[in-house]
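for ur thesis appendix - 5'-methylthioadenosine/S-adenosylhomocysteine nucleosidase. copy paste whatever u need, i formatted it the way the template wanted (i think)
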Amino acid sequence: MFTQPLLLKILRRAGCAVLAGATLMTAACAVPVADHHCLTECTPRIGIVSAFGAEADILLAQTEKKHDWLINGNRFTTGELRGNPVTIVLSGVSMINATMMTQLMLDHFHIERLLLSGIAGGVNPASHVGDVIVPERWAMPMEVYWNGDGSVPAACGTAGDVSCLGLKLATQDGQPRPDFKIGTPKGAVSTGLFMRDNFVMNAANAPQGEFRFDYQADPAMLAVARTLKPELAKCGPKNPSLCVSTQPVLRVGGRAVSGTAFLANPDYRAYLYSSLQAEAVDMETAAFAHVAYANRVPFIAFRSLSDLAGGNDFKDVGAFFGSGLAETNEASVTLAFLDAWKRRHTH
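the 3d part is after this line
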């Protein structure tokens, strides 16, 4: 005979709505939603992922009707944020953690859309500390083929062909993207690091799968982001005496990138900007986007800039570390987006 908790779990797995009484339990089973196999809680929700506790804490503080779920030691919080049903999780830093926690969320909850909210390093030198970037697409340029020199890899007999290894070089206008070169007093030196596309498979492209360089953010969510006019702070809440000199702005569009390395190399940052016109770099979002694409779940990401990655080119870097400015502005845009999204789907 099943215990009540076990029966509840079985019914949820079967896609059933459960009505429990003091002594009697009945279940009205319906056809489950396609492609959603929620193991824990099945209310349709927006999934929100943050890497740092400071980023998630601002959102959690405003979440209503909160309920915490512990899954493999990780806390997932369900509730309502600005009128939207949400599941919020702190992923921890790194591509691996972002991948693991995003997939875990999709497995255990009915996530209709994904949103990542956090901070990043700037790549575009025209940006400023506290700006919020909402890229149209994300890439992983640190997925590389590391050749012995700067010549185009020819592992499979022809320049640029590495298909016999199950790989594909990233291309632009039909040609492999140039390798990363280090500047020296005697000129640029090739590293042999050539960008690769990523292999990804989902129900739409199986069984052959596909190679991708960019992961596109959801057009409908981007359209709402373009309507936002948030009031972004110049001074953060932790130390209001530390303020940036340039008013932070919201920018929607362009490409941003993610990688496994904490980027503290100005030459590589300049390479990302010159070769990809990247706006920002972090250690989570492109992995999150890869999981979203593999599960065919629309996504968007909001990233506020903490500094210029790999250098002191930005003024006011101390304002981020001393005042919490970046996470405050990122949370302001995320909350403004959720307000606008709710209005759009209410009227």
